[in-house]
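Worked Example 4.2. Consider the chain below.
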Amino acid sequence: MRKIFVTAGHNRNDAGAVHNGVKEADLTMELRDLICEGTDFFKDQDSWNNARTIGWLQNNKSQRDVNADIHFNAAVNNQATGVEVIVANNASATSRSLAKAICDELSQVLGIRNRGVKTESQSARGRLAIVNVTGVSVLIEVCFISNPNDLNAYLKNKEAVALCVRKHLQALQKT
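Applying the procedure from the previous section yields the following structure tokens:
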């Protein structure tokens, strides 16, 4: 059975995007906890920095294991919308399949645009260490906190978002 790791892309040491007082870190930690609730999933700690989280994954994650890293997008344009899931440039078929399943369903759950699966080179950062840790890895950009409609859709449906991600991770865990 695969081990499942769920990490908050931002935490107490890195607020991430902040828009109208909403901190990405608060949302990522809350959603990570909701996804892990009632499971045997492993999660990072709120006080860890990115390097510590990556080191922890490298020391505990095998080629078969899975990591889902939780993020929320933000943009200057408050009309930017949608969910996207990012994978490594050389992502496995399993990573790509998981990313597509999560992206497609989250778009429906939230009623927002499906921006699709993207590789790290297509992301704003260009290179993302978290998706290059051994094994299956996806980085989930749930929605845009800078878009009031996206944020409201998430806040009203966060339990359904957590259930969606948990369902896909648990299905993969059993393979």
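The two ends are 7 Å apart (CA to CA). The chain has a mean pLDDT of 96. Compare this with Example 4.1 before moving on.
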